[in-house]
Specification:
The protein is an alpha+beta fold and 334 residues long. It has three domains: 28-50 and 173-215, Dna Ligase, domain 1 (2-Layer Sandwich); 52-170, D-amino Acid Aminotransferase, Chain A, domain 1 (2-Layer Sandwich), CATH 3.30.470.30; 218-329, OB fold (Dihydrolipoamide Acetyltransferase, E2P) (Beta Barrel). It has seven helices and 24 strands. The chain has helices at 12-15, 79-86, 109-116, 123-128, 151-161, 178-187, 261-273, and strands spanning 19-20, 31-34, 44-48, 53-60, 63-67, 92-100, 102-103, 106-107, 132-141, 144-145, 168-170, 174-175, 192-197, 206-214, 218-226, 239-245, 248-255, 275-276, 281-283, 292-294, 299-303, 306-307, 313-314, 317-321. A hairpin with a 5-residue loop joins β22 and β23 (313-314). The longest helix is centred in the last third of the chain and has 13 residues, at 261-273. The model has no long low-confidence stretch (mean pLDDT 95).
Length: 334
């Protein structure tokens, strides 16, 4: 007996919302809105917030494409994930997920940097920094656009549509009890949790149907300059970072910690190639005068303890570069 198509197992009301569709070549991602206070609410699903790289996995028969949230092709960076999706029995799908590696039991964006920056990784690096992809949504399956299905049905379909074995994993979720799950996540050292309305459709925009709650304060910032190194330090001293506000780059502070020597060398070379004569900062507090300015092309993930009343970062630390986000998308989150 042939395997039953999981679409046939959907409720009749859900099947009526499916639309025939060719294999998509790209779907802009749905983004969560940052909120401060977690909640408990019937009908909502709560997932761990993973500290990795967003990935859209597209398969159309023999062709498999892994794309970042800003449409950069990731096939050469994560060949083991390409193989995992190509080995699936299903031949037409679009899966939304997150690529991660672990430091102990916790996902680590900083450690993932060692893979994100390398195309065609050697076997030694594949063994040293193994990666997994956690799938959390299904946007297309077997010739149908599934984005108008309620999230709950999309997840049920996703779980049946693919064969989940390492390095491909299905992200688990909790129902209703978001406050307890948030406390558990923070006690385990996770980045936070994501709350999703179980009835929500998939939209290619930032939405309040998906909410994120962070255990630690961190976000992306645009690099607009750097200072000279002092003493035995190599590369550069500190990064000058900011965010966009009403179309202008607002200065947010200096970041001088979180770098190892390899990062100082590599990032130092990148910054030197982007140098410009004028400051890109046009809003916020005044940046230091003794600085090298760069074109605002690089985005960094920065952790910090809080914002000062003057609008600057307190105790910032560098976590890594983000190649999956455009500088003009970076705004103040907290």
């Amino acid at each position: 007996m042939a395997d039953r198509n999981p679409i046939d197992e959907l409720p009749a009301g859900a099947r009526a919302r499916l639309r025939r569709s060719a294999c998509p070549k790209w779907v802009a991602p749905m983004l969560a809105t940052l909120k401060e206070e977690p909640f408990t609410r019937k009908g909502w699903l709560f997932e761990p917030k993973l500290d990795g790289e967003r990935c859209l996995a597209l398969r159309c028969r023999a062709d498999v494409q892994l794309l970042s949230r800003n449409q950069k092709r990731l096939n050469d960076t994560y060949p083991e994930l390409v193989r995992a999706f190509r080995s699936q029995k299903a031949e037409r799908f679009a899966v939304d997920g997150e690529i991660v590696t672990f430091e102990g039991d916790v996902t680590s964006f900083s450690k993932l940097q060692q893979r994100m920056q390398v195309r065609h990784p050697p076997e030694e690096l594949l063994r040293k920094i193994p990666v997994w992809v956690y799938a959390f949504d299904l946007l297309h399956f077997d010739g149908y656009d599934t984005r108008q299905l309620p999230l709950r049905n999309r997840k049920e379909l996703l779980q049946k549509a693919l064969d989940f074995k390492d390095p491909l994993r299905f992200i688990e979720h909790r129902e209703t009890a978001g406050e307890a799950y948030y406390r558990e996540a923070c006690s385990k050292g996770w980045e936070g949790i994501i709350a999703k309305n179980g009835d929500s459709v998939y939209v290619s925009a930032r939405s309040r149907e998906w909410l994120k709650f962070k255990c630690t304060k961190e976000q992306e910032f645009v690099i607009g300059g750097y200072t000279d190194p002092k003493g035995q330090r190599i590369g550069f001293g500190a990064l000058l970072v900011g965010y966009y506000e009403a179309g202008k780059l607002a200065y947010a502070g200096k970041v001088g910690t979180g770098f190892d020597e390899e990062t100082l060398r590599r990032l130092g070379r990148q910054l030197a190639q982007l140098e410009t004569r004028t400051s890109p900062f046009a809003a916020g507090p005044s940046p230091p005068r003794a600085a090298h300015w760069v074109k605002p092309k690089l985005v960094a993930q920065i952790g910090f303890t809080e914002w000062t009343p003057e609008g600057k970062l307190r105790h910032p630390r560098f976590l890594g570069l983000r190649s999956d986000k455009r500088p003009e998308e970076v705004v103040r989150e907290q």
